[in-house]
Amino acid sequence: MLGKYALSKIEECFTQAGKKDYLDYSKKIIKPLINEGSEVYVLALELETHQMVNAGMYKEAVNNLQTILKKYNLNTYIEKNTLFRLGAFYSQFFGDKVTADKYFEELKRKYPQDDLVNHIEIIKNLGMVANDSLHDSEMILFSEEQIAETKKEITKYAVTNYPNPFNPSTTISYSLPQAGHVVLKVYDVLGREVAELANGFKEKGKHIVTFNASSLASGFYVYTIKVNDFFASKKMLLTK
Questions:
Q1: pTM over 0.70
Q2: Which domains does the chain have, with CATH numbers?
Q3: Share of the chain above pLDDT 90, in %
């Protein structure tokens, strides 16, 4: 039977290899091996949500999170984290403050002393991921199928990550209108470098890299990207 670590590594390998069939693989191969009433099954749904967002399947991703909350709410950890992620998702990806606040308020009502409550204002201040501006660059998420088609159409630098908040890994996606030397690093709130995710020449187009923070403490982190004359930084939140 698959465990949480093995399942996370499988999804990470699919992402890093740029494979497009993880959702189909999860449905046909992974899920039949997992007890539907287990926490591992919930993780399988969460990893599918990750892949759905990478493919631009936002409604399907929300449906997955809502399914977890309604049908697989096995313990307080799953409930509070799913409430938080739904609130963050509606806030960051849909700009739907009313729906986001509904989930945030339920989280505060049920778990008023939980650390996640203290992170709600941080998420609200991040604004919409899809519309945030970085040096006049649009925040864009592409499906893998679109990469080849849109490669020649990319005219602006763009960078984003999902999920955010995340535990323990998140995928950082960036788009380059021209080739160049890319330096992508992650820092903690004290300005200490905790990871170097890229430092080398990259071709024009869409690129993705996975940041695994399993060895780091919960909290706020900042990732920066520098390529040619472009520089940007973004916030992300690790919640364990």
A1: no
A2: 4-126 (1.25.40.10), 144-238 (2.60.40.2550)
A3: 46
